[in-house]
Amino acid sequence: MDTKKYAPGIVKYIPFLYVVWADNLLSASEISVFKKAVENDTLTQAEKDRVNSWLRPGNPPEDEVITSWKQLIDASGVKLLESDNYPLTAFSQRLFSNENDGSGPDENLKFIEINLGIQPNHYRHLFDVRTDKVPTTDFYDPLQIDLVLKGAHAPHIDKFRKLLSDPLFQWNIQRDKDAFRIRTLEQVKLLASHGYGAMAYDKAYGGIGNMPAYAGIFENLMYVDGSLTIKFGVQFGLFGGSIQNLGTKKHHDQWLKATGEAKILGCFAMTETGHGSNVRGIKTTATYVRETGTIVIDTPGKNDNKEYIGNALHARMATVFAQLIVNGTNEGVHAILVPVRDENGDLMPGVRIEDNGYKLGLNGVDNGKIWFSNVSVPRENLLDRFGRIDGNGNYQSDISNPNKRFFTMLGTLVGGRICVAKGALSGAKMALAIAVKYALYRRQFNSGEKVQEDLIMDYPSHQLRLIAPIALTYVYHITLDHMIRSYASSTEETRRQTETQAAALKALITDFSNTTIQECREACGGKGYLLENRIGDLKNDVDIFTTFEGDNTVLLQLAAKGVLTDFKSEFNSDHFGDILKLLGTQLSDRLTTFNPLFTNNTDKDHLFDPGFHLEALQYRTRRLTFTAASRIRSYLKKGVPSQQVSLNIQTHLITLGKTYGAMLSYEIFSGFVENMADKRLQFLFRKLGALYALMYIRDNAAWYLEHGYISSNKSKAIRQRVERLCTELRPHVASLVDGYGIPEHCLTAPIGKK
């Protein structure tokens, strides 16, 4: 090709044209991106027509033309610098000058490079590449992304992150649990001295009455250490939270301020060896003795002890959950404050505590077993917000139904469940940040002796395994922030729905976090297996998050039953219009499902449409809800006992719980993105949301195909779009993990610092 035949304005597009046609990156829906750049250029109309003549998907350039472009590029002698912020743009501008004129990147070329997601793995085998440093892009400012994630609590979080630079929070390998526990306790006390433990408490008790801000602090603790996060949560969230949420003013005045200052260390004694998830079935008793005005706590059997209780080896006080017996009547599970040690640290009479010993992770947390043998406490130690013993020794409650009272009591503790999900998500963020930073300098394999080995971040498989979960972390972060605000402002009437939502999200997100951390470990190869690189400890610490604050399998069933309760209320409504609305929804689902224009639509705009994403997630939730309700009704009509019915549809309920959590997450995230003021960041977040939704549909493609919701061609197109979105987000991967806001002094993994 004779370059003199082309004006420089045309020639600068030739490297882009060669890349997209050589690798078949250009699809019909993406032609508009290229044409928009050309249209905005200062080329003459004839020059624009010439470039556009090579942008016809139905009539691509001849092979000879594409080969001549390659010859032109090779003959130029220009090297593509991978260290440029926009490598292909800079290369095209240098093509005939061999020098950078300092004018910055051509905006039209940059527009194509960014929006088509052109990556080094697309051109490294095509051009002579020279690498001087790790490639980065400054298109999105990580500080601005972090500001979005911090939200209204930015001042609190920024101040807190600075405190984490204190040498006491410096991470190191800990293998002596006794020394580890002492250090963790010192860290908790330091945080308390700065007021962070009491943030969720009212001002009168040393706090600022801000539960969402406390949750923001909690999730940042995972960047220091998992053990610190959990011990902090046990002391101030579980123990302090039980006093705050289950107690009344007399308890607050006596205990809450000292708890927030860590002057009184406490534990949360709910779980028993014989009864884990089934709190209502616990065996520990709390018997009121009218003659003495006391409550006697007792562990009746060998396996009725409190099990796996955090802070057990350090605590002076325990919130003990027990069957409250008043005047011979079991009033159900209540919480009682019980001293377990005196001021000298010696066990109180009748209290026995044993160390749980070494665990898979979190060995800086002093978990233990606790037995009570006729331990007597004053009647006033009953946390009596929902049930009390009056001066005459009679039980009273404003909630007459024992089941409703029990679930109302547990509902006040849902904030801890949300915080657990936040902590797990931070563990995933930390692992992703380490894995991505490693992937941005680690090279492996090449396509020829003259070509430098490729960055592993440029392999499509590596992008899929790391960038897809990055998108999920952003969706889940926004979702959990919304949930903690909803919880903080909820009433007793709205708390049941919050509990349903928190149950689904806790299960969904802790499971995701464990899977992601394992993926990061593998993505870092042998380096990820070294303790110094942090992923191993993250993996072991976050593992248990799927179990405590509610076993995930149980929580998913709880969430599904909450969804079915709402469905039942609608279905059994006396309003005929509600029934028609429900039936109309089912009819609409069928029409949508079998509409070939919908099931076969593979257009890019449709696949990226939030409306399509939301409809797909809502459709699956509706369908699973309707079929679960239908199965229940069918079994009950046959006289099958309700307990057996639950077992018969258990796996159905678990699937419904997961689907509901995914739908809820996308609903919240898409609503948040719609209201973003920064349009540049909004574009990025929309891509993250699209990747989340398409990943979900891809992972559940079998179900959608079975129900005729998508065709096989659409399923294939969705799979391709997932991979393409990962490619498009590749230039911004460093900004996305830096946007987590992980303090530099917490990123101590050697592989994340080169």
Automatic annotation (TrEMBL):
Residues 411-562 form the Acyl-CoA oxidase C-alpha1 domain. Keywords: FAD, Fatty acid metabolism, Flavoprotein, Lipid metabolism, Oxidoreductase, Peroxisome. Residues 267-375 form the Acyl-CoA oxidase/dehydrogenase middle domain. The keyword Lipid metabolism applies. GO terms for biological process: fatty acid beta-oxidation using acyl-CoA oxidase; lipid homeostasis. Its cofactor is FAD. It is an enzyme of class 1 (oxidoreductase). Its EC number is 1.3.3.6. Residues 183-258 form the Acyl-CoA dehydrogenase/oxidase N-terminal domain. Gene3D superfamilies: Acyl-CoA dehydrogenase/oxidase, N-terminal domain, Butyryl-CoA Dehydrogenase, subunit A, domain 2, Butyryl-CoA Dehydrogenase, subunit A, domain 3. It is found in: Peroxisome. One of its GO terms (molecular function) is fatty acid binding. Residues 613-753 form the Acyl-CoA oxidase C-terminal domain. Belongs to the acyl-CoA oxidase family. This is acyl-CoA oxidase. The lineage of its organism: Bacteria, Pseudomonadati, Bacteroidota, Flavobacteriia, Flavobacteriales.
